[in-house]
Amino acid sequence: MENEKKNIRNLSLTGLEAYFDTLNEKKFRAKQVYEWLWHKQAHSFEAMTNLSKELRMKLTEHFTLPALKVDATQYSADGTVKSRFKTHDGHLVEGVLIPTSSRNTACVSSQVGCSLSCKFCATGYMDRKRNLDFDEIYDEVVLINQQCEKVYNKKLSNIVFMGMGEPLLNYKNVLKAIEKISSADGLGMSPKRITVSTAGVTKMIRQLGDDKVRFNLALSLHAANDKKRNEIMPINESNNLKSLIDALNHFYKQTENEITFEYILFKNFNDSLQDADELIKIYRQVPADLVNIIEYNPIDAAQFEKPEEDTVLQFMQYLERYKVNARLRRSRGKDIDAACGQLANKEGH
User: Fold this and answer.
1) Does the pLDDT value for residue 21 go beyond 60?
2) Is the domain 69-336 a CATH 3.20.20.70 member?
3) What gap in Å lies between CA 342 and CA 336, rounded to an integer?
4) Domain ranges in the chain?
5) Residue in 114, 148, 340, 347 annotated catalytic
6) CATH code matching the domain that covers 2-64, chosen among 3.30.479.10, 1.20.1050.10, 3.20.20.80, 1.10.150.530
7) Vertex 243, ends 241 and 249: CA angle to 5°?
8) Could you tell me which of 27, 28, 35, 29 has the C-alpha nearest to residue 59?
9) Which of 4, 35, 94, 278 is catalytic?
10) Which residues contact residue 170 at a Cβ distance below 8 angstroms, ignoring those fewer than 6 apart?
11) pTM above 0.85, yes or no
């Protein structure tokens, strides 16, 4: 029965060895298959060319290999590449390749849709269909890395979990995917080059600390007082700023990993000098390395606007004056809806 077949990537090397044992096959075959699955990133059993045809048939009989596929690709005038990926059960998610002179970053999704309903984010207006499995997240990185090599002749240097979904509400799969991405038998990427971005799930931020993870953490702050944050991010009602500050301090104490704040500027909402003042107060309560001030990218579903350029400048200068390490992040890929907050699979939804 098709339904009884198991996803082969759910097996560990030991599990594969046990399976090959039942076939009376040599143990090293398991290692070969494992290498094809992770290190060589094979997306079908046919691709495993150093196995006999008979053995590949047996694998097809017993297992599935439900790999992610590129469904559509868009190229921005600024070099950004957005991909729409299709899962084995027909769901669509998006990932973005963001090239700069110093780095090539993959922005990956962790869920199909999102359940958090942040008012400024296109994905927040979709329902959450399901979590992505760890091997699907791994595939996203593999496919974006292949694009990077093809278009820019370089490998990915960084990964940010800032695509569709809330990574900390898909905790196990995200951690397992990062483990594979950073392991020697996977992509061998340093966890220090990986950043997980959260809208602020207090309990899971503390859990990251307890699990002594090695990657970096970014908090999507976007408002520096509870009243305003409740308005635009419903999650704040059950995860207020005080609880988040405590959780971030716990995370840092346990891991000493980098913490970044993300702060999108909205016209006449959180762009005044008083807002900047409140942001500084929070920044000083957490050992944060950086505040990313982000240009807002309008979406059809929301009424927010971008502030005037001189308002942005004043806001930045004010932060600078008070010794905040802040960086203005200009939008990339706006012309293909690949910029921050715009991922919503416009076509086909």
Assistant:
1) yes
2) yes
3) 9
4) 2-64, 69-336
5) 340
6) 1.10.150.530
7) 100
8) 29
9) 94
10) 110, 111, 131, 132
11) yes
Query: Number of C-alpha atoms within 13 angstroms, CB side, residue 61?
Result: 8
Is the Cβ–Cβ distance between 166 and 115 less than 8 Å?
yes
Q: What is the DSSP letter of 167?
A: G
Q: Which two tokens stand for residue 188?
A: 């061998």
Considering Cα of 125, then 115, then 173, then 55, what sign does the dihedral take?
Answer: negative
Residue 158 neighbours by CB under 8 Å, 6+ apart: 103, 104, 105, 106, 193, 194, 195
- Tell me, what's the pLDDT at 346? 52
Pair 135, 93: CB distance under 8 Å: no
Judge whether 243 and 202 are in contact, CB under 8 Å: yes
Euclidean distance between CA atoms 311 and 294, whole angstroms: 13
Please state whether beta strands 111-112 and 69-75 pair in parallel, antiparallel, or not at all (unpaired): unpaired
- How distant, in Å, are the alpha carbons of 120, 136, 263, 265 from that of 270? 13, 36, 9, 6
- Extract the tokens encoding 16: 């594969």
Query: Which helix (H) or strand (E) element contains residue 75?
Result: strand 69-75
What gap in Å lies between CA 241 and CA 236, rounded to an integer?
Answer: 7
pLDDT digits (tens, 9 = 90+) for 40-56: 999 999 999 999 999 99
Active-site residue, 94 included: yes
Question: Cα separation of 177 and 70, whole Å?
Answer: 19
Cβ pair 271, 312 in contact under 8 A: yes
pLDDT at 349 (0 to 100): 36
Name 41's bridge partners: none
For residue 158, the surrounding DSSP H or E stretch is: strand 158-161
| Nearest-10 Cα torsion for 82, 294, 212, 185 | 20
What's the whole-number average pLDDT of the chain?
92
Task: Tell me the HSE value of 200 on the side-chain side, using a 13 A CA sphere.
Answer: 29
Amino acid at 71: D
